[in-house]
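Chapter summary example.
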Amino acid sequence: MKNYYLSFIFSALSLALLSACNTEAQESDTEVTEENVDEKAMALAKEFIIVDGHIDLPYRMRIANFRLEREFVDPSVETDGDFDYVKAKEGGLDAPFMSIYIPASYQAAFDHEYGNLLEGEKNRAKEVADSLITLVEGISEKYPDKFAIATSPQEVEAHFEKGLIALPMGMENGAPIGDDLANVKYFYDRGIRYITLTHSKVNQICDSSYDSVRVWNGLSPFGEEVVQEMNKVGIMVDVSHISDSTFYDVMKITKAPVIASHSSCREFVPGFERNMDDDMIKVLGENGGVIQINFGSTFVDDKSREKSEEVRGHLRSWLEENNLTYEDSAAQAYIEGYMKENPAYSTVKKVADHIDHVVSLVGVDHVGFGSDFDGVGDTLPTGLKDASEYPNLIAELLLRGYTEEDIAKICYKNVFRVWKEVQNVSEELT
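The structure predicted for these 430 residues follows.
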């Protein structure tokens, strides 16, 4: 009798457990629809760490501080920019890489004929880099309840658990290294965790995708040493902005996976060397690297790029005719009005197309977000206008069949994997 009742109780418990498991499975596998996708996307944006490879807040703050007619930018409150604390919290952004952006105008004058750095007033790149790093440190010091510097994935995770926005830093342009290899370690010690080898002009390290001049046809001899030193020190090599030949030189030399912190796919914008073509993306995948998709409309959409060039052409002509510059307050109203009347915006769907394209080439392990917020000006697509709108992109990916694990990889796991592997390689080399 006892065995019968015992068996009955076990059977009942098993059925109850199975029913509970089935219910849980049904809830987690709820079909994503147009009706529930926004709620689901917002939940994932808050559940997962979101890493963005490139946000230009520091230089935006620097410019604002130098222009007396504009108010000081306070990132702890809502601003008119693409990134601030309020927008980041709303959109689930947890680890925006602060771009320590060094315009080519600050790098040492370059002797194209002999490939030497020339001393002069323009050789201020290191000074500017230091000032921007100090500015980012100042944000975390002034608002410790909102922001914290991060130099590793582990620190990002710790800050996330506390509800803080982590501020890792990447240096956009290797010009501040100068001709002294010791500066690689210097900037590592200052918190830099990736270096974009150049920006818009050739420098002492390599050629630029934006520059018609090809001094090195890839990496310079010193540039090869810089890549090796970055591997040794533990700084990620960023292949955004560099020329195609430089990219292939980097791939031959690096012992660690690399990132493209804010690049998109050339497939959709033919001839735009600043983006990566299919062969490069495949090599990046073989390297174990990650391409972080730039959201700018002119990066993701050929039609937007053509329209934007038309608009810029008209504005240049109008400014010349009226003897004005883009900086003149007298021109601002006209520029703003004309751009509103002649929009060149793409859409969040097009950004998702770029993610789809990378996944079709090399899989979901090699793509992430690299918005270029505060860096691409008024060219951001509809649905991705600022840091509050990451859930819109996540929703689009859900509707396209991406799983929660896929989205976690795109949001942060892929970049964390590269970052940790760069740390591992550094330990092996030292």
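To summarize the output: The longest strand covers residues 95-101.
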